[in-house]
Specification:
3 helices, 33% helix, elongated
């Protein structure tokens, strides 16, 4: 009596679903990175500095070339600046406020804004620059 030969089924690994998942994760990280770069604030031409260091900012104060002030994305006046910053900071916590001033902004406008913020307790100031 003869038995039929055993048909060995070949085992295969289908990597197409894995490639789909890898591309989906890659697309997520690319899109989230693009969003993070836009979240910094309004577009301004930052001054260049070779000694620039990266720091975590709690709040961002943007001063445009025309001298307009924006706390985050919201417009704010110089008179209301300290009250707005104080409202966004939790009591007893230290906050880092980064000033993103355009190169064409008058120096007096930047100093006046920084002077208003410096009077607040628990607030540290930083000036945003970009590397040359």
């Amino acid at each position: 009596m003869q038995l039929p030969p055993d048909e060995e089924s070949r085992l295969t690994i289908n990597i197409v679903p894995m490639i789909d998942v890898v591309f989906a994760v890659l697309a997520f990280f690319i899109l989230s990175t693009l969003y993070l770069t836009r979240a910094e604030g309004l577009p301004v031409a930052l001054p260049r500095a070779t000694t620039a260091e990266s720091q975590e900012a709690t709040l961002t104060l943007t001063i445009t070339a025309e001298g307009n002030l924006f706390l985050g994305q919201q417009p704010v006046t110089l008179e209301a600046l300290s009250d707005e910053v104080q409202a966004l900071i939790e009591p007893g916590q230290t906050a880092m406020v980064t000033v993103r001033a355009d190169m064409a902004t008058p120096h007096g406008q930047v100093v006046a804004a920084m002077d208003r913020i410096r009077d607040l307790d628990g607030v540290r100031l930083g000036i945003a620059t970009q590397r040359p």
